[in-house]
Design brief:
about 0% strand, single chain, Rna Polymerase Sigma Factor, Chain: A, mainly alpha, 2 domains, Arc Repressor Mutant, subunit A
Amino acid sequence: MIYAIQNQIQEQLDSISSSLRAFSLKLTGNSVDAEDLYQDTALRIITNADKYKQGTNFKAWAVTIMRNIFINNYRKKVRRNMIIDQTPNNYYINSGDKLVENDGEANVAYNELMKMVNTLDEDFRRPFLMAYQGFKYDEIAEQLGSPLGTIKSRIFFARKKLQKMYQDAQKERRA
C-alpha cells in the first residue's frame, strides 16, 4: 500500500517536474541553488507521501513544500551569517567599526557658550551654572537664599538670553 502511494506520488512529481524546476529557479536566482532546492523538495515530497491527501491539488502541495524549504534555508543562511558575541558588553561586536569622532567642533561650541554664560549678570549666571551642574531648583534656592519662583525665572531668562546670544553669534559667522 505504502509502495503504491509512493509510486503514485513519484508519477505526479515527474509530471510537474518542469514547473517545480522553473519555480525553484525563480526563487533562488541561479541554476545550482535551484537544482539543490528542487532535489530537497523532491526528497521531502517522497518521504512525506503519506501526508498528501488524495484528491487535493498535488502541484499546490509541492509548491508549498518548496516555498517553505526555500524560506527555512534563507533563515538558516541569515542566522549563519550573524555574529553572536558572547563576551561581556559585546566587546568584539562593539570594537570593530568604531568611528572616531572629531570633538573639536563640539569643544569650540562649548567654550563659546561658556564665554557667553560668563557675560550674564551674577544673579542669572550663578543659578544657571548650578542647574547645569545638576542641582535641583529647590537646592539652588536654598543655597542662594532666594525664593524658588525667583530661581526658576532666573534660570529660564538665562536660557533665553543664551539662546539669543548663540543665534546672533551663528548669524555673524554666516555673514
